[in-house]
Amino acid sequence: MWRFYLLSVSVVAATQMQYVGATGCDIVSVSSPSASTLEVEWSNYPNASHYLLDLRVVNSTTVAPVVVMQQPPSTHRLVQGLRPGRNYKVTLKVFSFFNILCTDQELTMTVPATSQITGFRPLSSTSVSFEWSSVIGADHYILFVEELFGSQKYNQTFTSVSLSGRMDGLSPSTTYNCYILSSNSAGKGAKGRIKTVLTLVQPPTGVTLAVTSKSSARVSWSPVDKVLLYQVCVSDVDDASNGPVTKNTSNTYMDITDLQPCSNYTVGVSSVNIFLLPGEAVNVTHSTSPIKKVTWVSVDYSCSNGMAAVTWDAVFGADSYIATAVDGTGASLTCSSASTSCHIMALKCGENYRVYVTAVSDDCESTSDASYLFETVPCAPVQLLASHECFSNMIVFSWQPTNNTLYYVASSQDNTGQVIECRTGDDMCYFTNVGCGQFYTFHVYAVSSECNSEVSPPEFVRTSPCLPTNVRTVAECQSDTLITTWDSALGALSYTVEADGNMGESYNCSSSSNSCAVTGVPCGEHLSVWIVASNDNCSTSRVLGEVAQTVPCTPTNISASVQCSLDFATISWRSGNGAIFFIATAEDEDGKPHSCRSMGTSCVMEGLSCGRSYTAAVIGTNLKCNSSRSQEVSFRTGTLHHFLQQWFSTFFGS
């Protein structure tokens, strides 16, 4: 008998529990005899005053630990009150009074709780289905089926996620005891309550069916041992809405009546046990008033009108026939006839049709096993696309592939009516060496072994314009305008002229005709002129035209020097850009003109009258255009008195 003593608080507080390092305490074994117990055995330790076992559920803070003490010399303990199917950490502590001499730990598990069969049902004479309850900690469930009055035993293991299963291979009309065991790594749980089940009676043998009239038949079979009744079930195979008819009999035959003409039936016969549960059925089939099927079908398809002439062989007893053509989507077209041919109209293009023929009588109909497969004319290609790279001489014409096609014929026609064909098995054609400035029309049609499709709708494409030619630019002798002209380019809808000068500026103009004016160009410029032709799709590369030159700039800083001479004056100026040479003009009071020319910046104007007042100006020219007239300068020639005074001063001294 265990004795425990309560020490005073002061004694406990004054006493310190010491751990004395030692070796040699070992947990020898831990087993789970039941779902709530663990049996622990450990090695004997010398000088031990008592042993302490601490059992805790792993990774749980809600389940209280179980702590027990054991007095030497016993080294074995059965611990009660544990949780089924849980992982436990078992700790052994060896004490010498208040000192811990040694510890050891072991991880283990309790076996799962008891699982129970919650439901069962005989499926046949050799099979039973079961359901069972789930228990914590079970890794597997083992179903046991044992013959009650015999030696046959069966078992089958299921995973923890399976809570139902079936046992096959049993004997008919046999009573079995059944139970379930749960198991995990610790072992098997307790055996569940036994359920008793009786397998169903085996089905009859020798089931045959004999026709007794147009709408009736007799089904018969051999007798079966341990049977209470026989169940006959008649099902209409062709009409699922017509539910099965079930009847019981103690005889080994049954007459079936009210069968519909030209129908297919399944007749099942099963054995019924003393609990009025039928076993699996043995089935036979029966067809009433059958009409023979057409044995061959032929089709003559016409490409031109999309019609198929269907012919077949005659069937004895048939009043009429229905020919059905089914396409790849399951859609069908039909025609009917009392003879052995008919015409199916409105067939779709690009389809594969399979034709069946159904023979029809007053009572029933039968569809042929024989059929005929044929192709219809390809559809006209769609999703046309003609693409042209602006700086390429090639057009790519493509379309969506069509069914039943061997190859395609694509054609192009230009502005002049010239036609080029391309034949290909692909879904595109490459038309090379196309001309500039052309408007092409494309068509395509598909070719099969028998027929050609309709021609597709047209697809249009415009190629790049041709290059403009004979590009000329004139200044019109105006200070800020250039007029550019050119010969029209084939296929061009508009033109853009670009001019680049030497002052870092660019100028442009656009036109839909064959000339345009560039404005805002300063005087004295020399320009490079390009032109680009465009249409809705493309633009040409830049074409260089003749060099352009604007009107010369007006000379500036005009001055006149007479040096007291009688008949000439020196006119000077500052050169303007773009001038090749200059012309200076002067008029006296009477309007009499005088002039001189120079490629430099001055010239001597001779033949003037002495003692006269003159007004002079200068213009620059590039041989095509003259600059505007410079600002005027006034001067006066010397008199005779001045001339003589100068002459005497020169020859005689002052």
Q: What portion of the residues fall into strands of 2 or more residues?
A: over 45%
Give the beta-strand count.
52
- Specify the overall morphology: elongated
Domain tally = 7
Radius of gyration, in Å, reads: 60 Å
Question: Portion of residues in helices?
Answer: under 10%
Main sheet properties: 5 strands, antiparallel
Q: CATH superfamily of the largest domain, please?
A: Immunoglobulins
In terms of structural class, how would the helical and strand content be classed? mainly beta
Name the average pLDDT: 87
Organism: Gouania willdenowi (Blunt-snouted clingfish)
Protein name: Fibronectin type-III domain-containing protein
Pfam family, one: fn3
InterPro entries: FN3_dom (IPR003961), FN3_sf (IPR036116), Ig-like_fold (IPR013783)
Protein described:
There is one protein chain. This protein is an all-beta fold. The protein folds into seven domains: 18-109, Immunoglobulins (Immunoglobulin-like, Sandwich), CATH 2.60.40.10; 117-198, Immunoglobulin-like (Sandwich); 208-287, Sandwich (Immunoglobulin-like), CATH 2.60.40.10; 297-375, Sandwich (Immunoglobulin-like), CATH 2.60.40; 385-462, Immunoglobulin-like, CATH 2.60.40.10; 469-549, Sandwich (Immunoglobulin-like); 556-643, Immunoglobulins (Immunoglobulin-like), CATH 2.60.40.10. Strands 10, 11, 13, 14 and 15 form a five-stranded antiparallel sheet that branches. The longest helix is centred in the last third of the chain and has 12 residues, at 640-651. The chain is elongated, with a radius of gyration of 60 Å. InterPro entries: FN3_dom (IPR003961), FN3_sf (IPR036116), Ig-like_fold (IPR013783). This is Fibronectin type-III domain-containing protein.
